[in-house]
Amino acid sequence: MTPTYRDQAYPVIAIAWGRTIQLGVLTNYEATKNGNADPQLELDGFYICDGTTIDQCFFLSESLLFIIVNKKEVRILYTQNFTPGIFEPDYIA
């Protein structure tokens, strides 16, 4: 689940680079599973790590991300608490 998509579980991808994680949601999974539509990925929710680089990112379970920062620090993130929307490079954290 993401900040906007809270009504049910959707397939989600977490894309991490630098200090940022952006979530992508496959919003029409049922239609694509049945072959009735092409996949539609919407970006919804981002997280900016405070001053440190994200080295690795893994899903632990639905809505829980496990990240490693600075090659030694572990953080657990709840995806529904991410900032809603799409990350913009000029965003001030």
Q: Average pLDDT value?
A: 89
Helix content: under 10%
Total beta strands: 6
Proportion of residues in extended strands: 35-45%
Describe the structure.
The structure is a single chain. The chain has 93 residues and is mainly β. It has one domain (12-81). Helices cover 5% and strands 44% of the residues. It has 1 helix and 6 strands; from the N terminus they run ββαββββ. The strands form 2 sheets. Strands 1-2-3 form a 3-stranded antiparallel sheet, with no helix packed on it. The chain has a 3-stranded antiparallel sheet with strand order 4-5-6, with no helix packed on it. A hairpin with a 3-residue loop joins strand 5 (64-69) and strand 6. The longest helix has 5 residues, at 29-33. The model has no long low-confidence stretch (mean pLDDT 89).
Task: Describe, in short, the structure shown.
With 93 residues, this protein is mostly beta strands.
How would you describe this structure in keywords?
single chain, 93 residues, mainly beta, 3-stranded antiparallel beta sheet, 6 strands, elongated
Task: Set out the fold topology.
Layout lengths: L11 E6 L2 E7 L2 H5 L7 E8 L5 E8 L2 E6 L3 E6 L15
Antiparallel strand pairs: 1-2, 2-3, 4-5, 5-6
